[in-house]
Design brief:
By secondary structure, the protein is an alpha/beta fold. Helix content is 19%, strand content 31%. 49% of the residues are buried. The structure holds alpha-L-arabinofuranose (AHR). Alpha-L-arabinofuranose binds next to loops.
Length: 608
């Protein structure tokens, strides 16, 4: 098949933040995932709200039943702790603890010793009983005290266990039992898994949205995510159940999210509830169109203050603000320079939402007019009637927000046939954040066809980058055997990280992004057009131009370009294969004479 490409001289300015990431603790993305803590249920706070069969001893083992006490807690936010006498306490980790020979691991625990001395041996034990690492810990004190030691592993093991072995018979309380690899991403304490964080960093996301998704607005009013429960000393953070059926330690809290954003050069985009819980939560079981429940009006001022405190915490001066001092005390005296805040996620747009959303936006705009607010248009997209209602509210109140978040998980066919989705958007209205999307309804895992559908769609999103400010594929991470959702962009286990074709589409659109869109026009038989995509952008700071070409046809495509010269040494990157392929084979090279001939099912970027 042959197509003709006309490249003009006309350019328009587009968003330079088009590709970011959506991070939600779904499918064990945070606890047991990106957060590098190797001990599961370190705080003994697991309970039946997390999962019906869970309790304070889940993931812990001992020869005799483990005694759990709340009599003299380390922190009122962490009331449970284990009491042991002479029996060894074991932790199974998250599907085992993966350790590597020649590496060091920081062990720590709080001990309530009641004045008596106790010596512990702390060990990592392999599946065959081999001692992989061992260290001694002497404890003595009259109240809770933290003790630390380093475990140096002699052998690797993918499924080790931790053993805390008391050396004599003394009754002690234990809490916040923790084991971290010494090497975390950027070697941050309480840090992130290096391999996983690096794959995310390689995507060069322009922003990070966190902590959800549904997790932001939570399973009912009591489960709304409160950012201020997630900062400060680890033992004082307030754990909660996770809407996705497990536990949130909040060890990966707002400080760590903001730190990660800074480390990878991405803008933080915290998304918090609009005073209403998840549209799917039990409290809202009447379903879409039913009355949504919300934080009672007399409690809204306190909730709004909490959101204002976040901005103060992120950007304030520690000399004058107690919230900024909390940030400085955690090791970050300089402001985080927060520019965006998201309010609401897929909420039912109706009176309960609208009243609260309006109150929140007005308060933020009044105190921090420089902060860009991102609202929501609800859980639907065009042409559904509910979607029209969602936008209707935005259109009646364009002044409330800078942009609005819309979500869609659709089939590859949908993406291929809705390439003009943003063409008719009213440019006078708030901008769009396509906060969650994936070509997903017909697959369990991304493959070449779904990735090409997303790439095709993104060529048109770039074309509409004057109205679409940001986009993020969702969900991003999924741990093997713990999927809440399919498909996902990156799969991982304790030892492996497996990016998909969907990841590489995101990475290539991000790394080869620009802030100017150069007009192009592709002439091809009309019935083939939905399977061919072209986009040319220019990055004005470097002067580089990137040409993206997508051929989702089952045949070779040759493009004849008018008005474009491609130097033979131009770098290229691409993937191609069969539609259902999931095995990745990325190719990098230089242009050569046939650079505009694309094999069937190919996504190629040429750096001009
Ligand atoms: O991405 C998974 C979920 O999909 C998000 O938590 C929610 O916002 C959407 O419904």
């Amino acid at each position: 098949v042959t197509a003709t490409l006309h490249v003009s001289n006309s350019e328009k300015t587009i968003s330079d933040k088009l590709i970011g990431i959506f991070f939600e603790d779904i499918s064990y993305a945070a606890d047991g995932g990106l957060y590098a803590e190797l001990i599961q249920n370190r705080d003994f706070e697991y309970n039946a709200k997390d999962r019906r069969e869970w309790n304070a001893t889940t993931a812990w083992h001992s020869a005799s039943p483990i005694d759990i006490s709340t009599q003299h807690p380390l922190s009122s936010n962490n009331p449970h702790y284990a009491v042991i006498v002479a029996d060894t306490l074991w932790n199974e980790g998250w599907d085992g603890i993966a350790v590597e020979a020649g590496h060091k691991y920081n062990f720590s625990m709080y001990v309530l010793a009641d004045g008596q001395k106790q010596n512990f041996t702390i060990q990592l034990i392999g599946t065959d009983g081999t001692i992989l690492a061992s260290s001694k810990l002497k404890t003595q004190g009259t109240d809770w005290q933290q003790y630390t030691c380093v475990l140096s592993t002699k052998k690797s093991c993918t499924k080790a266990r931790l053993a805390i072995i008391p050396q004599k018979s003394v009754r002690v309380g234990l809490d916040m039992i923790s084991l971290f690899p010494q090497e975390t991403f950027m070697n941050r304490p309480n840090g992130l898994r290096r391999d996983l964080a690096q794959v995310i960093a390689d995507l060069k996301p322009k922003f990070v949205r966190f902590p959800g998704g549904c997790m932001s607005h939570g399973q009912g009013l009591d489960n709304i995510y409160h950012w201020n429960h997630t900062v400060g000393p680890l033992q004082d953070r307030k754990p909660d159940f996770n809407i996705w059926g497990y536990h949130q330690t909040r060890g990966l809290g707002f400080f760590e999210y903001f730190q990660f954003c800074e480390d990878i050069g991405a803008e933080p985009l915290p998304v918090l509830a609009a005073g209403v819980p998840c549209q799917n939560s039990a409290a809202n079981a009447q379903g879409i169109g039913g009355q949504q429940c919300g934080i009672p009006m007399d409690q809204m001022p306190a909730y709004i203050q909490e959101l204002l405190d976040l901005i103060e915490w992120a950007n304030g001066d520690p000399a004058t603000s107690k919230w900024a001092k909390l940030r400085a005390d955690a090791g970050h005296p300089a402001p985080f320079n927060l520019k965006y805040i998201g309010i609401g996620n897929e909420d039912i747009i109706g009176t309960v939402f609208e009243e609260r959303y309006e109150m929140i936006c007005k308060a933020i705009r009044q105190k921090y007019p420089e902060i860009k607010i991102c609202g929501t248009v609800g859980p639907f997209h065009a042409p559904s009637a509910d979607y029209v209602e969602g936008w209707d509210f935005t259109k009646r109140h364009p002044e409330l927000q800078y942009m609005v978040d819309e979500h869609y998980y659709e089939s590859t066919g949908w993406f291929m046939h809705h390439r003009n989705y943003y063409d008719g958007y009213d440019r006078t209205m708030p901008k769009v954040y396509l906060g969650e999307y994936a070509a997903s309804t017909n697959v369990k895992r991304p493959n070449i066809e779904t990735a090409l559908a997303e790439a095709l769609y993104l060529t048109d999103v770039e074309r509409n980058g004057d109205v679409v400010e940001m986009t993020s594929y969702a969900p991003m991470l999924a741990k093997d055997k713990h999927h809440n959702w399919d498909p996902d962009m990156i799969y991982f286990s304790n030892t492996e990280v497996r990016p998909t074709h969907a990841y590489h589409v995101q990475r290539m659109f991000s790394v080869y992004g620009g802030d100017k869109y150069v007009s192009t026009d592709i002439q091809i038989a009309p019935e083939l057009k939905h399977r061919v995509g072209v986009s040319l952008v220019r990055h004005s700071a470097t002067g580089r131009r990137y040409l993206k070409l997508v051929n989702a046809l089952p045949v070779e495509l040759t493009i004849k370009a008018n008005g474009l010269t491609i130097p033979a040494d131009s770098k290229t990157e691409e993937f191609s294969g069969q539609p259902t392929d999931q095995t990745l084979e990325m190719k990098q090279g230089v242009a050569g004479p046939n650079v505009l001939t694309l094999p069937p099912y190919t996504f190629r970027v040429i750096e001009l």
